[in-house]
Amino acid sequence: MTRVAIFVSGGGSNMVKLVESMTGDHPGRACVVLSNQPDAGGLKKAADMGVPTLAVDHRPFGKDRQSFEDALQTALVPFEPDMICLAGFMRVLTAGFVSPWQGKMLNIHPSLLPKYKGLHTHARALEAGDGEAGCTVHEVTPALDDGPILGQARVTVAPDDTPDTLAARVLGMEHQLYPLVLRRFIEGKRDTVFLP
Ligand code: GAR
């Protein structure tokens, strides 16, 4: 059984879908949900599903990313994770944390990478006049929103879309894509899947 730690910063809707998917004959199980935001809605949702939770507040560490990441790593140890899924985790992780987990850490990003790394992806897609948008699940490497692409899902951009309406439609696809890619990843598959 592959033990999966899930990192969130907010509401954790992707985390819920991942946890819900890991039942029955699924080869993975959520071992902990961790947040850098002690009041993240995702922590309560995880606890309600019976998953252990952990908060490591980044704020007391200020600009000292290394100490924050050391605290993350130390806090994870008792849960013995085999891999990490970033699911709306909004802190940039440096090479010091990422490198030991490389090949064992996934992220979901709300754009069709390599387009629109970073923030405000939906606004940027609309400003560019793109006809389609979407989301990507990729392996995490030290470079931001980079790393081998394992899955992508596309949506058509509507003429009256706003960043919020587009984000909501893409999020619906994220909820399908991330569980699919996670299962395939645990099963050892590394080719890219596309939805729909
Ligand atoms: C999702 O749209 C995810 O793709 C995005 O944050 C949202 C989290 O929603 N992640 C990033 O922007 C990472 N850079 P959720 O908390 O409801 O899963």
From TrEMBL:
InterPro entries per UniProt: Formyl_transf_N, Formyl_transf_N_sf, GART
Keyword terms, alphabetized: Purine biosynthesis, Transferase
Any Gene Ontology biological process: 'de novo' IMP biosynthetic process
GO cellular component, one term: cytosol
The keyword Cytoplasm appears for this protein: no
Reaction(s) catalysed by this chain's protein: N(1)-(5-phospho-beta-D-ribosyl)glycinamide + (6R)-10-formyltetrahydrofolate = N(2)-formyl-N(1)-(5-phospho-beta-D-ribosyl)glycinamide + (6S)-5,6,7,8-tetrahydrofolate + H(+)
Binding site for N(1)-(5-phospho-beta-D-ribosyl)glycinamide: 12-14
Binding site for (6R)-10-formyltetrahydrofolate: 65, 107
Gene3D superfamilies, sorted: Formyl transferase, N-terminal domain
Catalytic activity, EC: 2.1.2.2
Pfam family, one: Formyl_trans_N
PANTHER family xref list: PHOSPHORIBOSYLGLYCINAMIDE FORMYLTRANSFERASE
Family: Belongs to the GART family.
Protein's name in the database: Phosphoribosylglycinamide formyltransferase
Source lineage: Bacteria, Pseudomonadati, Pseudomonadota, Alphaproteobacteria, Rhodobacterales
